[in-house]
## 1
Amino acid sequence: MSIKKSEFVKSSQNCEQCPKVDKPEYAFIGRSNVGKSSLINMITERKHLAKVSSTPGKTQLINHFIIDDEWYLVDLPGYGFAKKSKTLRESFSKIITDYVTNRHDVVCFFVLVDIRHNAQKIDLEFMRMLGESGIPFAIVLTKADKLGKVVLKQKVEDYKKELLTEWEELPEMFVTSSLNSTGRDELVEYIRYVNKVIAQG
């Protein structure tokens, strides 16, 4: 499941500045400390494609990357990091809301959640917004290496149970670890499968 080519395209402050949608587009989003940049680097097998910082909330723009000249990977600003100023949090929210509501050709949102924690209200609210807008999404459970196998399995089951209190059908779900590349092949395989379906019309 190797990715041969991954290149940064541009950073945008809003949808109007984003590249023309001429390829399938997959957006990655989550709370500011969920490990999004590390996951993107793990998927692309590029250590420094997305900037990893010890300070959550560093992604402040819509960042487009072109993968194998076939699809766009989009790194969106994180949400819900309390140490950021209220004004900055609002601007992040505006960027995210603009992208969700106006970028109509996004194939899938990958919503990242830290599997160590119980389902967080802000994540569930974001998924609800996507669902109400009819936007496809999948859930990426990050930091699986931080838990033992038994606890991890229970956490995944608990998360599914929480979702089923509101959703009739569960979205695609991937258990991942950027440290040991758990879930990488499954994610890339899923994206390639969807791309093939799109290409077949």
## 2
Amino acid sequence: MSLETALPLKPPTEDVAGKIQSVLDLRPAIDAWVHAAASREAGIKNVYLVGCGGSLFNFSPLQYFLETEADVPVFLVNAAEFTFRQPTQLGAGSLVIASSTRGNTPETAKAAEFAASRGAAVVAITQGPESIVAQAAPAVFLHDGAEAKGALQALLGFAIARELGSSSTFDAEESALRQYADIIASALDETAHLFDRIAAEQHGTTGIYVVASGPNTGAAQTLAMCYLQEMQWLPASAFDAGEFLHGAMEIVVDDTPVIVFIGEDATRPMGERIQAFLERFTTKGYVIDTAGLSLAGVPTSVRPFVSSWLFHSAFTGRLAQYFEAYTGQPLTTRRYMWKVEY
């Protein structure tokens, strides 16, 4: 690392390959659950992706995948709002995926119960087999960590798209998932210097912006809201790249820090436009662009798919660990969450 840190930098997640393989082993069960939902009289008319905070934001790649690969409306909704709003389209033809990392989010448990009461096919994805969210959902798929959750959501996406008549088998994408642990390790090694530089220069920030587009918008929200605000108590804001240049850019001056996530999906030009703007007006623009990574063994056609999951299941968490090392504040520290009634 470039400067003396307050805490040692944590090592990357251990046994990523084993955690991902445990999810890949679930493919027959995932396919069977989606097939059963599609075989109901109402079929699959729409998909709701429901959660809170990072669990909601991490649906971004799945939302993008379904919107571009499956002929069905997809709604990304905060769990509390989902229950209060009571969407009129929610019903027997709905497929609801409720996500909660530990499974202890009351709003998500209520959302799962509400969706089931309306006749929707409901599944929870969580790490907690005995959690309130797992108990509230008729079906549960378990994972062990962000990397495995990304693979689980991808398999759900493949199964839904196939059931809805996609002509693709997604074999190449699934093959990439089988290499995903090595892909992550290599990508984190190649981005280590950049992540170190960002945290070294910005761990005392009085305000930082994170910008992304398409399937990576949720990763920007996760970094800003969950890691920097919630865990590091640093002022941060996330923006969709398509909206940043419609007002928010007025805050940018020579030393305004902005992190830009640029993937390789169809929305890439939006990120490149932000990059060009920042190069003109601030010296503190940080660009994390997967196009410069080797991603060995990943076919060109599959790089957009892989890049979106890298931001969510590897880059945000790892960059947060660099911030943790420099600030000296553990990512487990909270003022209010799980400590007070709210």
## 3
Amino acid sequence: MLSIADLVLVICPSQAASSIAAEVAGHSYDGVYIDANAISPQRMLDIVATASAAGATVIDDSIFGAPPNDQRSIRLYLAGNGASQIAGLFEGSQVEPTVLEEPLGSASALKMAFASFQRGSRALAALAHALADDHGLSDQLVAEAERMGSGILADRDYLPSVAARAWRWQPELDEVAATQRASGLPDGLAVATGDVFEQLTPLKDDWTANLRDVLARLHVATTDVRPSDPRQ
């Protein structure tokens, strides 16, 4: 199949992405290799090196949305030399391609940025409902959730106010973690969220903080080698 294929589109569980790239490269495939998996930019560049060594042209691709049908489409973000030509292959389909001007790895980075919120929020919702159920409060939790807005990720301008209150929210996360532990639930997400708020505590009550400064402060955490659980 590889000997006659003009392109290979790889969609698989992320843990298999590297091994599939190596397998395809092992057959000296020199066509277009499109990796559409939810992987880090660093892993994407490793796959670029693997596939390119065999002569393939690599396209970095990420998929957004549920499988398409007559009522809905999905979005593809493509990066790399030849991405525009690949985008043209989906014309007239239920796939909406977008070509990124950024280099290889950028489509994967976009997927990681989105997944960090979307996957994480689903896990947080599961923990919230498990904890509420333990205390017989599931109906009240749902009622409060229905009062909340759903555009959290889209509302960038709200983040400075989050930073201004982080000094108060960080200790609350310690209490959340303690409550989860008491119910026999994983507390790692609460601990990690508290760590994020701790990075923002120097902006206490600074309601006019610049968004760029808020986001930059989060990168300070990468300079510290800290256990994910401060109790360890």
